[in-house]
Structures are given as structure tokens and as C-alpha cells.
Amino acid sequence: MIGPHLPVGGALLKAADRAGAIGATALQIFSDNPTAWRRKAGPPTDLQGFRARLEGSEVVVLAVHGSYLVNLAGPDEAFWQRSVETMSADLAMAQTYAATLFNIHAGSHRGAGVDVGHRRIAAGLAMALELGAPEGRPRVVIENSAGGRDSIGSRVEELAALLEEILGAGVPARAVGFCLDTAHRWGAGYDLSDPNELDGLLATFDRLVGSEHLAMIHLNDSRSERGSRIDRHQHLGAGRIGASGLAAIVRHPRLARVPMFFETPGMDEGYEATNMARVRLLLAGEPLPELPAEALNMSSSRVVRRTPAASPPGPPPTVRALPQSAPGAVPRGYREAASRRR
Ligand SMILES: [Zn+2]
Ligand SMILES: [Zn+2]
Predict the structure, then answer these.
(1) Phi–psi pair at 171, nearest 5 degrees
(2) Ligand 2 centroid, distance to 261 Cα (angstroms)
(3) Residue 103 φ then ψ, to 5°
(4) Looking at the 3D structure of the chain, how many domains does it have?
(5) Given CB 3.0 to 4.6 Å as the disulfide criterion, which of 7, 25, 50, 263 pairs with 303?
(6) How much is the mean pLDDT over the chain?
(7) pTM of the prediction?
């Protein structure tokens, strides 16, 4: 089960069609604006059609990524309340979408300390689940961080401690899991470029957190230095993690049943097909064609931006218009690979 995070932008049916067209078996979307507090009054009118088209496609797993504004870990009471309300609204909407996974960022303790942050996440998550999805469906999946300022969850040991708090707050084990974002792990210092390290990394997660709590993977390459705590996604196999490290992940038997989603640049410019084709090549153990230079410097799509709550203020990302020919510049080999489904 592998597929892209696709921007929806009011065109749900188009997103379902695009996922189907590239042969994705998993799809991640935002159910609402991830950088605004205001939530839609109700489900979109084309939701039935969206579900029907997904059912007619090979997509078997739908994940909803929650709002970037939500921060359950911080000490500010009003912000925490607002986060719980927004998350519960998003959770309820994700349930209406029939999503099975609902992904949030662990957030930032904002100087209050990791332990306080964990306790606040646990309490907030328990409350949001009670309000938004009391049956524990979709499963809430907490994403690891790259370790930027005050962010929670960059180390596996931290995820284990966080899980303990969450279970202690009365959340059933099946209602919560973790997402390992490969670019975030790389930013946090884990060497995913070396296939020989992978068994050890997975064994550590299974020992400290438990294999049943690895609910999903964000399969991203990274433009940043390992250990830099900076999160900048790159096309699969075209970044510093590289093809052999990512191939080891998609081919690992332990991860065969873990849904994977790539959050790579250029999803509005046709690069979802490029990266889906690269996934197939990685699965087949085949080398990846080089990408054209303009593909490697694309501004990141929204989904790959750092959590605002955890990021120091800085200049806005530079937005660079892409030449219209960008998708057409995809090497020919991809078309062929895209038609070879697996
Ligand atoms: Zn995320
Ligand atoms: Zn991610």
C-alpha cells in the first residue's frame, strides 16, 4: 500500500482520479485547510463520488493529515483548547471520509519541557478522540519530528515515553499509532541511507514502542543534512537518503503491511506520477533514472513544510514558478514503469 499525499484544493474527484490513474494503493489528503483554524461547516458535496471513485480504484487505504496549526504539546491553555477542538473536528470529518488513519504532528512543548509536552499531548489526544471519534476510528497517528526547536518525538525513546502517557490517559492501544517520516528521521540523525542500518532501526522501534504501533510511513527523501533537524523533502531517491536506503524500506518484509505515503515536491505539476513510478522501480530493485535539474529545486508543496508551531520564524519559502514543460520533462522510462503495476 503506497501512494501520494495529493493536494485536494476543492477538487476531491480529481484527486481520486489522479490517485487511480497512477495506480496508487494508498492516498493521503487534507480534509480542510491545514493552515487555518476555520473549519468547513459540513462534508463536501462530492464526498460520495470521491468514495465511489476510490472504491473503483486500487486505493485501499485513505489517510487524512490534520491541521498544521494544532499543537497539543504546548503550555498555553487557550491554544491547547483550540487545538483539541480543531483536531476533534478534523477527526470527525476524517471519519466521514471513511479514512482509516488520521495523522498529526507531535507538536512543540514551547519550552515547557518534554515530559510536560507528553502529558499535554496525551490529555489532548484523549479529549479530541472522545469528542471527534469516540469509536477510535480513524486511528490517530502521531508523526515523528525532525527535532527542530522544542519539537516532540524526534527520538524513538521519546515516542515510547509519549505512548506510555497516551495509554495512561485511557486511550485504547488500537486507537493510536505512529507515523515514521523518513525525511524527519533523517533530519533527526538516523542514517536511513544505509540499508544495513534498517534492521537495527526497526528492531529498536519494535522493542521500545511495539511493532503494532507503527501505523504508517511517510516515504520522503531529504534535501537536508542528516542530523540538521531541518525538514526539506525531495523526490524519492534524488535526495541525501538516496535510492538504496529507500529501496531497503519499501522492500523490507517487516514493512510489507505498513501503508506508505510520499509527500514529495511537485504534486500539482505531475510529479506524483514520477514518484509513483520511482516507487515501483525501488520495489523492483531497479536503478532510478536521473531527474531533470528543474525537478530538484522545486519549492516544496504545503505538506512538506515544517510544523509552524515548532519552527522558528524565518523568511517565507521562496515560490518559484515552474516551466510548463516540467511534467513533460520526466524521463521516458517512467511512463513505461508506470504501466507496469505491482
Ligand atoms: Zn506531516
Ligand atoms: Zn510527513
Answers:
(1) -75, 125
(2) 8
(3) -100, 130
(4) 1
(5) 263
(6) 89
(7) 0.88
